[in-house]
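Running this now, will post back.
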Amino acid sequence: MIHADPVPLRVDAHGVIRIGESRLSLEVLLDYHQQGMTPEAIADGYQGVITLADVHAVLAYYNRHRDEVDEYLRRRAAEAETARGQLEATQPPRPGFREELLARQARLGIGHVAPDQ
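Update: finished.
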């Protein structure tokens, strides 16, 4: 007998849509996909956390409910921008902070920060 499986999406306590019981957010999964990652590559990156079937189910849900999901994504982006503004407003100015971070990264031999970020 054939039965319908539920879409593996849940809303956590902070209103973030997550994939199954994982911490992977819908935003991140869709971002990976929009960057060109295959469903297989996404599932492989989260082995033991989500399945390939989960990724396909979420992408199918997105394709069926694109307007609603895009509205959710816009709302989340606006909330993130508001939170960023509030955080920046409460922090004292730190002249030279970026240069300090770049120097620290260079000493540790890690990462690269693109100019003007």
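The first helix runs from residue 26 to 34. More later if anyone needs it.
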